Every structure is written in C-alpha cells, then in structure tokens.
C-alpha cells in the first residue's frame, strides 16, 4: 500500500508540474510582446485589429493586453503554490490536509482571479475588435462562460479551504469542490464547442477537409463524456457526501478530459496545425495518471484533516 501511495503522489506531482510548466510557458512567451508594445507603442496593433483607431480604442486595447499579462502573472504564482503543495504531499509520509491548506487556498483563489483578467478582453471584442461580428460574439461568449462558471466557484472554494478547521465543515467543502470541478469541465467543453462553431461560421467549407471532422468528433464525444461523468460525480457529492463511486466518476471524467487533449495534439499534428497545439490546455494531459488511479481504486472521501 505504501508503494501505491508513493506512485499516486508522484503522478499528482507530475500533473501539477505540468500545470506549472504550462502557466510559466505562456508567461515567458508573453513577456517580449508586452515589452515591445510598451517600448514601441507607435507600432502597436492588437492581433484582432482595431475597428476604429483613436486614443480611446488604443487605450482599451492596451488595457486588454496588460490585464491579460497580469492574469498570467497571477496564474504562475498560483501554480507555484500548487507545485509546492504537490512537493509537500510527495515528501511527507502523511496526507495531512493542514500541511498544504494555506497553499491550496491561494492556488484556488489565484486561479479564480486569473479568469477575471479576461473581462477587458470581452469589452474590447464587443466594441473595438476588427474581427467579423460573429467571431467577436462567440469569443466573448467563450470568455464569459469561463468567468461565470469558474471564477466565483474557485474563489469561494479558496476562501472556504482557508477557513476550514474541522470535520464540521467537511460536507459543505466537498460539495463546493464538486461543483467547482464540474463547472471547470463544463467551461472547457463550452469553450471548445464555441471554437468549432466560430470556425465553421467563418469558413463554410471547414469540413470539406475530412480529417477536420475527426477533430470535431473528438470534442463532441470525449469532452461531452467528461462533462457527463463530472456531473454524475458532483451529484454523488451533493447527495451522498462523497461516498460510493464519487471518485470513480471524477476519475472517468478526467480520463476523457485528458484523452481529448491527447487526441487534440495528434489531430493538430496530422493536419499540419503545429502552431495551434500550444493553444490547447496541454497541462491536462498528465492528469490521466491520477485519473486512472481514481477510476480503478475509487478511494472513498472519508475525511480531510
């Protein structure tokens, strides 16, 4: 059992390490762009273009850029707390929640705040972007969905974790964790469904290249199954306090979520969209390790201490 416990901790550390690496990658990648637009504003033009060019629209574009960069800083800091928590779990013999509670709380709070940094982008897309109207609308809906489904729940969960002291609040904490997890999966599902909708609206012949249908089916099938199992897992937490097959359902949800991004990478490589690969939530792929453990072993949620 000790060896199995060590393996699970290693898998968790690898998954969290992937999340940290992904956050750090986008932070480092964005630094040159932010430096360039700051030092050479006369050459600045947002990737979406400007519907009309005046001082106010440019200011809104800069607000979007700096807010996005600040969001990446926040996410990297949160990911750092998550990585340190995973390291402590790997290092310690016990699974005491109190050892990592404060760090987990900060991770959740900062991840929730990260999505709030999208708000200026929505304002820019709806009023100043030169992209087609349908693209601006669907991109805005994607961002709104992520903000509404993820931020309030992760921030609330982070605050509840920080205040957690005894088993008296265990049930409400587990219920909020279940809802937060479910909403995160649903937000990812909605994001990729809307991306396909946007691409098909802009290009009526999108599926004339038959392999693209495989990419679409990957989203429809694997992400939808991830949502279904996440919903079932959340329902079990709400009704049964985390007993029975709750962790198995969550494990299955994470397996399909990871599978989606594995197929996503293979699909992009197959059709030659190498530059698109980086835009997928690649950090989720290693989550398949602990997810398989949850699905096979179905550990019970008995206590948090």
What does the model show?
The chain has 305 residues and is mostly helical. The protein has 2 domains: 1-164, no CATH class; 184-305. 77% of the residues lie in helices and 0% in strands. It contains 9 helices and no strands. The protein has helices at residues 2-39, 55-91, 97-116, 119-127, 133-163, 170-202, 211-240, 246-271, 288-297. Helix 1 runs antiparallel to helix 9, helix 3 runs antiparallel to helix 5 (133-163) and helix 4 packs antiparallel against helix 5 (133-163). The mean pLDDT is 90.
Question: Mean pLDDT across all residues, rounded?
Answer: 90
Strand content: under 5%
Query: Which value, in Å, is the CA radius of gyration?
Result: 21 Å
Give the uncertain stretches in residue-range form. none
In short:
The chain has 305 residues and is mainly alpha-helical. The protein has helices spanning 2-39, 55-91, 97-116, 119-127, 133-163, 170-202, 211-240, 246-271, 288-297.
Topology:
Elements (H helix, E strand, L loop, with lengths): L1 H38 L15 H37 L5 H20 L2 H9 L5 H31 L6 H33 L8 H30 L5 H26 L16 H10 L8
What features would you highlight for this structure?
305 residues; mainly alpha; 77% helix; 0% strand
